Amino acid sequence: MIRFIAVRLLRAMITIFAVVTFAFVVLRMSGDPAQVMLGPDVPQEAVDAFRRSWGLDQPLWIQYLAYIKSIFTGDFGVSMRDKASALDLVLQRVPATLQLTLPALLLKLVFGIPAGVYAALHRQSFADRGVILLAVLGFTIPSFVMGLVLVLIFAVILGVLPSGGQDTWVHGILPTVTMSIGGIGILARFSRSAMIEVMGQPYIRTASAKGLKWRDVVWNHALPNAAVPIVTIVGFMVGSLIAGAVVVESIFSWPGIGRLLIVSVSNRDLAVVQCILLIIAAAMVVSNLVVDLLYGWLDPRLRSSAAH
Amino acid sequence: MDRASSNLVELRDLKVAFDGVQVLHGIDLNVGWGEAVGLVGESGCGKSVTWLAALGLLPGKASVTGSVRLDGQELAGGPREAFEQVRGGRIAMIFQDPSSSLNPVLRIGRQIVEALSLHRGLRGDPARREALRLLDMVGIPDARRRFDLYPHEFSGGQCQRLMIAMALAGEPDLLIADEPTTALDATIQAQILDLLIQLRAETGMATVFISHDLGAVSQVCERVCVMYAGRIVEEGSVAELFSEPRHPYTRGLFDAIPRIDGPRQRLIPIPGTVPNPKHLPEGCSFQPRCFRALEACRSERPALDTSADGRQLACFRPVQANEPAEPRTRVTEDMLL
Fold first, then answer.
1. What's chain A's average pLDDT?
2. pTM, full prediction
3. Residue A242's pLDDT is what?
4. Would you say residue B237 has pLDDT above 90?
5. A300 CA: distance to closest CA in chain B (Å)
6. What is the DSSP pairing of strand B62-70 with strand B7-18?
7. Which of A192, B182, B311, B334 could form a disulfide with B236 if both were Cys (CB 3.0 to 4.6 A apart)?
8. In angstroms, rounded to a whole number, what is the distance separating the alpha carbons of residues B177 and A253?
9. Residue A201 with chain B: CB contacts under 8 Å
10. In Å, how far are A37, A137, B145, B272 from A188, measured between CA atoms?
11. In sequence order, which residues have a C-beta less than 8 Å from that of residue B132 and are 6 or more positions away?
12. What is the rounded distance in angstroms from the CA atom of residue B159 to the CA atom of residue B101?
């Protein structure tokens, strides 16, 4: 078990390292912070001075080594724009983002899984077809379209909900709903197919042949088996709790990480962008690790194959 | 026990259709108290479907008609609860693939205790003790230590023993064994057959043994029904059927088995394959593969009639006793289609 976790942790570190390196290279290849920060009509001496003060005049690999070294000491650099610690800037925004993504995750779980399971148990019924239709609509309509449609209906036409800002919890309703709809659709579909697959297995017939009530067959024998594929999807959703709100935060002018990321990228605010990407990667990797551990808990066959 | 009926189970005109395709064409079958009946036939002939239908275990898209009486009480067409009370408690069933018939994420002890609490109201320590006794009875060594293991930690043969233990938990009057040895090694097959025979002797429960293995059927059963394309075509005691098969299909099944005694002989396969239930041939379903088919066989279907000696047969031109096996050199193309 310890070996299992150690291997996964090592793999996680490598993943994060790859993300950090990739971000570093791409950001520096794709634009010059000095030009963006200072504007087009600045004398060359000012640009050179800016580059020198941020170390941008050094060869790329020296910059890279310095960056990696500072990360290991817990220093994520300073924002070129705000001259404040990049990590502090990012962490300040985390609560706002979680205010949207956590309730959205809850909505996904509460509506997506039961809808999918119900559809699977009533296959080919009216309800099943309805769930499939709504699920497909839910995850095929992009969130920026969905968000605008909801704004149009609830803010512009009905005038019952605010279209943007973060003043009260009411302001969070539209962005949260926008964000959850796609996930509800995805979870409903996955839960449905997982459940259909499990309900066709011989051990479900055994459980029925044993004389168990239908409800007990579903709860005690089918659901624990259907949980493995569902957990995979939920794990992915948990991993994107921090990253998942870029588009929606922009639509609803919600001051979370997503908006900070967009602003920082357009400003080439290197330290902030890298810090955000690192945190997103870490969140993904940690949730993947947790999912791997959950697999073992849910399915004893995986537990013993991991041990050997 | 009060017996309302002389037969434990009576199936009458049991028919099953999937999506409008008839796969079972009216099965009449009795199983006496404590009797061991074999159901023989090729894959897809409806052996398993018969009993899954009788227990209401077919998926919802299957339409089942006919009568299923258990100890005189009608089950067919009843509510789901009626079936749930019978399953496991009065009629238990074990299946072909034991390893995937046990729930992979539940400990085997729990799966057996579940049946015990369901049918005998046992919980806690008494349930555990009884489960251990059952595991002992079906020959799981070191049951105490392995009580909390998962199905994948047992071999196929042991999984079938576990399935049998679970089936015995409800102290059923009838055990339906649906090809219980098909997925197992030959030596393990023999052990499981011995176990079924021994348990029947100890408990007095009736057994329905579904198999395409005539040898296994002859060991376990007293009476055999041969099924073809969703119908029973011949029925009789094991001794009668084995010494003197009358239906050309039954005879064909025997001719296709290698013999240990006597001179080496070429096996005689039955030409062709089981017909598609969507396109059953006119007349007798077996007629396109039958080496004795007459003109009448192609237009009319022979009914299952009871002869003077109590055997049942559905054939216009039965095989006579001591008739030599007919080498069917003329395998025409329409036979293979």
1. 88
2. 0.85
3. 81
4. yes
5. 6
6. antiparallel
7. B311
8. 66
9. 100
10. 46, 12, 41, 46
11. B143, B144, B147
12. 8
